[in-house]
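Long-time lurker. I teach an intro course on protein structure, and each term I like to show students one example going from raw sequence to a predicted 3D structure in token notation. This year I'd like something fresh instead of my usual example. Would anyone be willing to generate the tokens for the chain below so I can use it in lecture? Attribution to the forum is fine with me.
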Amino acid sequence: MGDNIESFLESQRTRIRADAQLMYAAYHPGSLIPEAAVSSIMQELQARLEKTQSAKIVPRVGYSAIAFNPNQATEWSSPWGQPLSLLKGMAEFPRRALSDRFFLQGLHGDIDTLLVAMDVAGDDLVRTMDDRKTRQRAETELQLVRQLESAPGDAKDKCAALWALITTGRDEALKVLIASADAC
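-- Reply from a regular --
Happy to contribute to a lecture. Here you go:
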């Protein structure tokens, strides 16, 4: 584009007019787009391009510092809340995608490829998703993950249970935590 926006737009005028004509013809078959409309489009494009030169195009990114230090635990707080939330999300996504047919509704593409791409921890469920009982397993494990969320208990123990589920497919630790919550 260079520094001269006006000359750049003028060099693109024929292409812009042709594109605008295609859109105009959809609503006004057989008619040509008025020159005033093309001029208006060109003025709007020039205003937008001038803004890009005076402002940052890339949106600002907000950073949230997250530092995990297990030694910062006190009687009133635990550093395990954020890891628990992350592990819960990592466990829920593939289980929900494989058991809830509406979860990925509107998404175009191969679900298996998406699950493999989103699998950041080597999830056992994703690794064995070709098994014929995968959907049933996903539903069962998803219910356990949801029950764990409301179960009282130490966030560190919940993290360990979720990690075991994700990496090995073993749900015993989840069941123990949920059973101890039911006993209370």
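Some talking points for your students: The first helix runs from residue 5 to 27. DSSP finds eight helices and no strands in the chain.
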